[in-house]
Amino acid sequence: MNILVVQESDWIKRNPHQQHHLMERLSLKGHKVKVIDYPIDWCKGRYKRRNVVENYHKIHAEASVDVISPSILKVPILVYPSLILSHRREIKRQIKEFKPDVIVGFGIINTYFASRTAKKEGIPFIYYWIDVLHRLIPEKGFHALGEHLERATIQNSTEVLTINHKLEEFVKGLGAINTRVIGAGIDLEKFNPDLEGTSIRQQYSITEDDKVLFFMGFLYQFAGLKEVALEFKKDKYKNLKLLIVGDGDAYSDLQNIVEEHDLSGNVILVGHKPYNEIPEFLAASDICILPAYPDEEIMQDIVPIKIYEYMAMGKPVITTRLPGVVKEFGEDNGISYVEKPSDVLVKASDIDVIIEGGKARRFAEDNDWNKITDEFESTLNGVVRIE
């Protein structure tokens, strides 16, 4: 089938998310996939022309996804109007030329217009929630408008999918009726607990006696990493190390903490690394952490895919008590909870890595990407037949 995807994130520059895994795997099964995205580097000029990247892949070398970035105008008061006009035009163009059998939306603005156009044209529309997107809008004054568009898109949708059960509760609160949870998947071969991480430990001067805590992803200010790093000022954590892979808003603050408090022997800032190198970094680690602020609004209903990847590698996870995470994993599944980021090191000192890591791996084994992709493909086939 022909599948058109719309989103407001950069398909090429961002790390792999749920949609990357699903769409590349669907392309491997013979489906044609086109994505309308929103580039993150458009600020390098006042105007960015429409750009098309054909046969793109991020995860699987044999996958083929066409990525279309509509033109965008960089003038503060015209950014959103420009996005609306260019994306509406592109959606209509793709419906005319590509003739999609189904449209899948992951955003707010372009997803709303895609859902409205799909309904008018009689094309099945799937609204897939992997986050509460209106909470991510930088300008808080637009949150209410974002939520309004989400509600309208839900009404236009053939079916609403969510990546976890907490998000399903949320979308039902917005009026969704026909819902289904299709959770995060894991490549169990790539994220294999038998992988060797010795070379990484040697590269970063990590000894056999060191217990390594690992974090990967975008370094938000609310990620809790600064609080964890500052705990290393206490001498009792000499054999603990924090290995951070990623960049973002808090990176420079973390650098300053390390330099100011002479923590280079405990806190290792690696920066961004390609996704295919992540399993080796995980193999070099003992415990993975998600110490985000528990009261941060945008963290309330989500379950980051990386938690499943941590667990697939047989790594116990320490996380703050985020509602979505607690609901998804419960107790005694290799997840340990703390009340605040600064509690992470104390908890890490007490964890039995072998026992808790085994629990984590057993839980993750039910989330193989092949199974998740088949379920998603079946859902698409179902709505296409319905229409």
Automatic annotation (TrEMBL):
Which Pfam families has this protein been placed in? Glyco_transf_4, Glycos_transf_1
Q: Which UniProt keywords apply?
A: Glycosyltransferase, Transferase
For molecular function, the Gene Ontology terms on record are: glycosyltransferase activity
Domain (Glycosyl transferase family): give its ranges.
199-361
The keyword Glycosyltransferase is annotated on this UniProt entry: yes
Residue stretches making up the Glycosyltransferase subfamily 4-like N-terminal domain: 20-190
- What start-end ranges are recorded for coiled-coil regions in this protein? none
* PANTHER family linked: GLYCOSYLTRANSFERASE (PTHR12526), TEICHURONIC ACID BIOSYNTHESIS GLYCOSYLTRANSFERASE TUAH-RELATED (PTHR12526:SF629)
Put simply, this protein is called Glycosyl transferase group 1
Q: Which organism is it from?
A: Methanobacterium paludis (strain DSM 25820 / JCM 18151 / SWAN1)
